[in-house]
Amino acid sequence: MKLITAGASPFARKVEVLIRESGLDDLVERITVATAPGATDATLKSANPMGRLPALLREDGPALYDSPVICRYLDAQANSGLYPDNDWDALVLEATGDGMMDSAVLMTYERRLRPEAQQSEEWIAAQWDKVSGAMAALENMWMAHLKGKLTIGPIAVACALGYVDFRHGDRAWRDDHPELAEWYAAFCERPAMQATEPQG
């Protein structure tokens, strides 16, 4: 198997963490690409017609893309139990983490890709409101699950928080969410998280 990835993508990081937590690290070759909206790498485009990271090349079928699909496939290959049967809480947490990533990436694009005169502070604020709303929900309703058995849910949330720190470190989200911050600090001690810190 070959994973098309990039060092700054939080969605690719989620897959990388799952790979390591599932014991698949030596079985997955990495193809690192440089890509951006409007300048999609040709290898990535051939694997995913939408040009989005990550994508997984298989020997026995078409490429898989979208991080939840890739993660479920790899979890099944390893039988690692990170997608427990009928664990809807794990799936909601994965969706929450992925949604936080979506909004945080859109904030990054607004700042980095649009001319300064065309940037919308209202748009950025609206995306941050989604991220901070998710953080509040995590702290108020989901801490027991985050602190429980390792599933895809905590992995997705941790990768989302990691991306917020990486690209939006001035947001000081820990001030309003101390319990979530404490959990995240402990989760970041996992070797899979340390080995996949974002680059670029």
Q: Number of helical segments? A: 9
Number of beta-strand segments: 4
Architecture (CATH level 2) name of the largest domain: Up-down Bundle
Oligomeric assembly: single chain
Shape: globular
- CATH-defined topology of the largest domain: Glutathione S-transferase Yfyf (Class Pi), Chain A, domain 2
CATH class of the largest domain: Mainly Alpha
Secondary-structure-based class equals alpha+beta
Q: Determine the N-to-C terminus distance.
A: 24 Å
Nearest-integer average pLDDT: 95
Return the domain count: 2
Please summarize the sheet with the most strands.
4 strands, mixed
- Provide the gyration radius in Å: 17 Å
Helicity level, as a percent range? 55-70%
Beta fraction of the residues?
5-15%
Question: SSE layout and pairings?
Answer:
Elements (H helix, E strand, L loop, with lengths): L1 E4 L4 H12 L7 E4 L9 H6 L7 E3 L6 E2 L1 H12 L9 H26 L7 H21 L1 H4 L5 H16 L10 H10 L3 H4 L6
Parallel strand pairs: 1-2
Antiparallel strand pairs: 1-3, 3-4
Account of the protein in words:
The chain has helices at 10-21, 42-47, 67-78, 88-113, 121-141, 143-146, 152-167, 178-187, 191-194, and strands at 2-5, 29-32, 55-57, 64-65. The chain is α+β, with helices and mostly antiparallel strands. It has a four-stranded mixed beta sheet with strand order 2-1-3-4. Helix 4 runs parallel beside helix 7. It has two domains: 2-78, Glutaredoxin (3-Layer(aba) Sandwich); 88-190, Glutathione S-transferase Yfyf (Class Pi), Chain A, domain 2, CATH 1.20.1050. The model has no long low-confidence stretch (mean pLDDT 95). The protein is globular and about 45 Å long. It contains nine helices and four strands.
